[in-house]
Amino acid sequence: MRRLLGTLEDELALAGKVAAAQWISNCLHLRLDAPTRMGFKLKPDGRLLEAPTLRTFLLDLLTEKDPMMAVAWSETILASKDSPDEWAVSMRNLARVRQDAESRGFLKEKAMEMIRHDPWVGSPSVGFLEAFDVFVHLRDPQVIPNLSQLANRMDNQAVAHAAFIALDRLVIERPEAALNALLQESGALNHRVEARGNMVARANIAEAGQRKLVEDYLLRSEMTSPELEAFASTFPNANFFVSNNLLTQSSGLTRAELINRDRASLNVLRDWLQDPRFGRIRPALALAEKRLSQFVQQANQR
To answer: Rounded CA gap, 76 and 69, in Å?
Structure first.
């Protein structure tokens, strides 16, 4: 099947983009389809390395031949719920071509519709899970309550993990807005308090707004030992998930950025250790201070 699809792609390349796009459009119109017995796997640029069906393969290929025609077909596909994998490719196609506010609003509406569709949530395909990257692309903190609700699910580990990664990457992209939305949401990640601690540890406390947010978080009366230990053991959290995604690129920090963040965080930790407000959690903060002191000392010796 891989060889056959490769041959088809070569033949369409020889036909030229206009003829190839029209041929693909005709196939989509006739609803020609077949399983490929392959997965839903992404290349670094968000295109499909493997497609589970012929239609998904063709819809992905159409973006190369005629992006506007691909958008038109994507809108048609998003009008009904026939395939979550086709929805994933369709939302990617729309996001790449249309960047205006109205189109982003439509994309958010469809992404929310997707995660509320119980049949897809209950039996998620790989394409469905990859489509959570649309939320990262939108960078809209208003979706945080919905993602945190899914991330809390103990009965659906695949969806919970996809939602958690989307949440975490939103915090990386928009730390202050995303963490504000997360911590204001009642019950957010209550079943994964260590993960919540790790997520808050991503804040850059060199920024006044983020420092205030973390201080308020640490002083909460409901703070539990496991969550506090998770925060203190990773703060400042610079661990990143690395993956090929539909729309976004995985983030990271340079060595210089890591060192600067460690130094700034160490200074703030030392301020907190002298602040009587943090007396109750001083042991955890002291462990974090010791760990960061070693990191900074090692960096200074290089």
So the answer is: 11
**Residues 296/266, Cβ–Cβ less than 8 Å:** yes
* 70, pLDDT greater than 90: yes
Query: CB neighbours of 107 closer than 8 A, spacing ≥ 6?
Result: 91, 94, 95, 134, 138
**Rounded CA separation 67/97 (Å):** 7
Which among 227, 150, 158 is positioned nearest to 185, based on CA atoms?
A: 150
Q: Which helix (H) or strand (E) holds 239?
A: none
Quick check: 245 and 268 in contact, CB under 8 A? no
Three-class DSSP category at 42: strand
pLDDT of residue 300: 82
Residue recorded with tokens 């963040």: 261
| Bond preceding residue 236 cis, omega within 30 of 0 | yes
Selection from 120, 8, 115 nearest residue 65 by Cα: 8
pLDDT band for 77, please (50, 70, 90 cuts): very high
Q: Model-level pTM?
A: 0.93
Which residues 6+ apart lie within 8 Å of 180 measured at CB? Answer: 141, 213
- The CA angle 204-228-192, to the nearest 5 degrees, is 95
Strand partners, 42: 48
Give pairs for 12-17: CB < 8 Å, separation 24+.
Answer: 12/61, 12/65, 17/64, 17/65, 17/66
Q: Round to whole Å and give the CA distance between 125 and 159.
A: 10
Q: Which two tokens stand for residue 130?
A: 């990859």
Average pLDDT, whole number, for the chain?
94
CA 32 – CA 298 distance, rounded (Å) = 61
